[in-house]
């Protein structure tokens, strides 16, 4: 039924939405029919209208349940507390969320329960209201806690089944009341039942063999509840839209545009081209094009594809697989910029001065034919003189001009002085059966920096282009570090006799100067680590607060719409602002940018945690064959209960418990991030390198445990000592027996 064919006796879509929003009771089909006086055959038409509204993304409902606005909430519902932040704000999500095509809303709980402070996992019956661009919850009643989910591995001991949880912090095994048909050794999902101290586990789903090849990413997918199966309607829509004709577009197929990506890239959503500018007004300058997959042409606002992409927020990358934001028909085929294939692209045309400044830009919908998909290593080898890495004609027509233009962009980068932290990324290499063959830091080449700087230039141009039209912008925001974190950094740097003035204007270069003063000292990695910890977390939002780390005033993500929903929002806004055809940003999304930004920022954090957890499991599996060996490590964290260390060049955080440091008392110096021996002055501090013996590596949980090579903390090993005098000792109750705590403020 189209809107024009709607029978006269039926309410309009807006009238139904208003009724659902204003109703003080659940609004199902019966209530809607009664409110609008619908009887007889008109009820059949109403049912079809409601189904159409669901297909259009206006309302959602499970069979037999009340309707509510898509993305909205019933006025009274059960919520589950999901977070209590550092400011004491309590956040909740609906316990039941039937809308598979959109993520559950995040509500700020306005009042505390009268029965005590709310904690993560608590359930409340709450009245909800939409306030501005967010949701507020007013608790009415604190409810009994529901069953707590638990993932773990079954094992049998003494004729009974037990469940060992996967969380590193989970120290106990739970007796199993119901195996659900699973067997010992199986990876399962279970629910905790009962009350302390008699808590048992009931298996609700068997997931398979936890040690099977490629199982570690599945653990993360289930643990973090990452959607990984596309609904049939979404797959069908992807197949249908992939056959769309490209329509009228700027033809760029004559240009030698190339895509430079990792050798194992699963998708190719960006490609680049550059040439000297022949305009005498830009003498010595360059023309460049950054061509990005035109995802907004295929994924339209409100479609099934769009709702599923927003529910996922981004693609999630694991060593053995990718959980894509879009079905593979789009992500790895029709939207992927492949060699010698005509592809729809959003082209960012840049005019770049010889000083690297972006002088002008324009955006167009184009058709491109990529001249080559080149691996970073091959592009670098070709520039370095390897005659066989890339065909010579491409080196002359594509790579050499790209490097020439990049030298100008790099000048601008150096004058901007962005934050320069050289922290290597780990690369895990698997064989065809999913087994680890190596774990090593990724090599950082000029080819990586080149593509990064072209992408940054396009992202800046996108933000400025939207600002010029006063159009909605989904900024990528990285704010200046808080004073609290700067004070902590200052106290930490004092332990190395490195000065850090708090009164100065803080810029990225401020931290670079600190690292310059440290030079190549042994403690440089730990200072770099602490500088990183002092930074705020980047996020998405419509209010421009700049990107501190890059030293940029306006910055938006534009270059990866295949794998990031934020980029798709930016593309749609450009389409609408510059009248580039179909697929513009909807009025509803334009008015809800803050809420959308909060949602996709949270989904990004979920993906990062899942990726990090999975890498930890792969590293533990790799190291499990080296248990008992002494390894070179670096301390990555220090707490009152011990310190964490990572294996040099491999990674994975493992604990050295304070109880294993010997009989000497160690006190926790919070400002210096170190444990200091009371008698010997021996210290274990953040970033310190030292040999440790690996005593445990659990691939299922990703946990490692180390001990000192001789099993004692005070062995007179000068390599373990840290400069600086021990500070005044403060004893506090509640600390581990061989630890005394020193420092002000709460622990981090």
Automatic annotation (TrEMBL):
Bias class Basic residues marks the residues at: 720-735
* Catalytic reaction equation(s): Exonucleolytic cleavage in the 3'- to 5'-direction to yield nucleoside 5'-phosphates
Q: Where in the cell is it found?
A: Cytoplasm
UniProt main location, coarse: cytoplasm
Keywords associated with the record: Cytoplasm, Exonuclease, Hydrolase, Nuclease, RNA-binding
> Could you tell me which Pfam families the record lists for this protein?
CSD2, RNB
Entry superkingdom: Bacteria
Q: Where is the signal peptide?
A: none
Q: Region Disordered: what ranges? A: 707-748
Where does the S1 motif domain start and stop, copy by copy?
628-709
The protein's Enzyme Commission number = 3.1.13.1
**Keyword ATP-binding recorded:** no
Per the UniProt record, which residue ranges are transmembrane?
none
Q: Would the keyword RNA-binding be found if you checked this record's keyword annotation?
A: yes
User: What is the purpose of this protein?
Assistant: 3'-5' exoribonuclease that releases 5'-nucleoside monophosphates and is involved in maturation of structured RNAs.
Q: Which NCBIfam families does the UniProt record give?
A: 3_prime_RNase, RNase_R
What the record says about family reads:
Belongs to the RNR ribonuclease family. RNase R subfamily.
Query: What protein name applies here?
Result: Ribonuclease R
Q: Which organism is it from?
A: Stakelama flava
Gene behind the chain:
rnr
């Amino acid at each position: 039924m189209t809107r024009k064919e709607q029978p006269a006796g039926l309410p309009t879509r807006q009238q139904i939405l208003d009724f659902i929003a204003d109703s003080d009771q659940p609004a199902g089909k019966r209530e809607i029919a009664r409110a609008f006086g619908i009887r007889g055959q008109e009820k059949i038409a109403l049912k079809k209208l409601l189904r159409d509204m669901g297909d259009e993304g206006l309302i959602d409902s499970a069979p037999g349940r009340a309707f509510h606005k898509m993305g909205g909430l019933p006025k009274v519902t059960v919520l589950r507390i999901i977070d209590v932040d550092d400011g004491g704000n309590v956040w909740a999500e609906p316990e039941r969320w039937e809308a598979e095509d959109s993520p559950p809303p995040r509500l700020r709980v306005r009042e505390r329960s009268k029965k005590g402070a709310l904690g993560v996992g608590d359930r409340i019956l709450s009245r909800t209201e939409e306030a501005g661009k967010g949701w507020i919850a007013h608790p009415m009643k604190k409810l009994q806690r529901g069953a707590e989910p638990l993932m773990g591995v079954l094992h049998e001991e003494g004729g009974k089944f037990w469940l060992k949880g996967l969380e590193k912090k989970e120290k106990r095994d739970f007796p199993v009341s119901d195996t659900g048909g699973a067997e010992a050794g199986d990876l399962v999902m279970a629910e905790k039942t009962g009350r302390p101290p008699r808590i048992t586990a009931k298996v609700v789903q068997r997931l398979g063999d936890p040690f099977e090849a490629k199982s570690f990413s599945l653990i993360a997918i289930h643990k973090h509840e990452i959607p990984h199966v596309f609904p049939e309607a979404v797959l069908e829509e992807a197949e249908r839209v992939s056959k769309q004709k490209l329509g009228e577009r700027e033809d760029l197929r004559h240009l030698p545009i190339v895509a430079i990506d990792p050798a194992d890239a699963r998708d190719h959503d960006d490609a680049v081209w550059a040439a000297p500018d022949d305009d005498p007004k830009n003498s010595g300058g360059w023309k460049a094009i950054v061509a990005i997959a035109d995802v907004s042409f295929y994924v339209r606002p409100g479609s099934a594809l769009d709702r599923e992409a927003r529910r996922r927020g981004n693609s999630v990358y694991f060593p053995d697989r990718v959980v894509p934001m879009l079905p593979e028909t789009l992500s790895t085929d029709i939207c992927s910029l492949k060699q010698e294939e005509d592809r729809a692209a959003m082209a960012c045309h840049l005019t770049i001065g010889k000083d690297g400044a972006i002088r002008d830009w324009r955006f167009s919908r184009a058709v491109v034919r990529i001249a080559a998909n080149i691996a970073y290593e091959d592009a670098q080898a070709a520039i370095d003189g390897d005659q066989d890495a890339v065909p010579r004609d491409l080196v002359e027509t594509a790579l050499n001009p790209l490097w020439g233009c990049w030298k100008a962009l790099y000048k601008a980068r150096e004058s901007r002085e962005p934050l320069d932290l050289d922290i290597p990324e780990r690369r895990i290499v698997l064989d065809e059966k999913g087994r680890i063959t190596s774990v090593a830091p990724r090599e950082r080449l000029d080819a990586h920096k080149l593509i990064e700087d072209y992408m940054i230039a396009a992202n800046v141009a996108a933000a400025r282009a939207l600002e010029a039209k006063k159009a909605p912008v989904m900024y990528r925001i990285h704010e200046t570090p808080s004073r609290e974190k700067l004070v902590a950094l200052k106290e930490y740097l004092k332990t190395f006799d490195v000065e850090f003035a708090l009164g100065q204007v803080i810029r990225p270069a401020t931290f670079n100067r600190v690292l310059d003063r440290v030079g190549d000292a042994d403690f440089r990695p730990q200072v770099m680590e602490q500088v990183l910890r002092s930074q705020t977390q980047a996020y998405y939002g419509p209010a421009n607060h700049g990107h501190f780390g890059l030293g940029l005033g306006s910055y938006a993500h534009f270059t990866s719409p295949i794998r990031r929903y934020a980029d798709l929002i930016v593309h749609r806004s450009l389409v609408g602002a510059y009248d580039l055809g179909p697929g513009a940003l909807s009025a509803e999304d334009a008015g809800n940018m803050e809420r959308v930004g909060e949602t996709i920022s949270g989904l990004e954090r979920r993906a990062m945690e899942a990726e990090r957890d999975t890498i930890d499991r792969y590293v533990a599996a790799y190291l499990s064959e080296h248990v008992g060996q002494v390894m070179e490590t670096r301390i990555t964290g220090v707490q009152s209960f011990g310190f964490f260390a990572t294996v040099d060049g491999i990674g994975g955080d493992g604990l050295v418990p304070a109880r294993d440091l010997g009989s000497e008392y160690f006190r926790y110096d919070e400002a210096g991030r170190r444990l200091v021996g009371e008698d010997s002055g021996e210290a274990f501090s953040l970033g310190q390198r030292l040999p440790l013996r690996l005593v445990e590596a659990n691939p299922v949980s990703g946990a490692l445990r180390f001990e000192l090579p001789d099993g004692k903390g005070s062995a007179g090993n000068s390599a373990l000592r840290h400069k600086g005098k021990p500070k005044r000792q403060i004893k506090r109750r509640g600390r581990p027996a061989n630890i005394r705590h020193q420092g002000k403020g709460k622990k981090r």
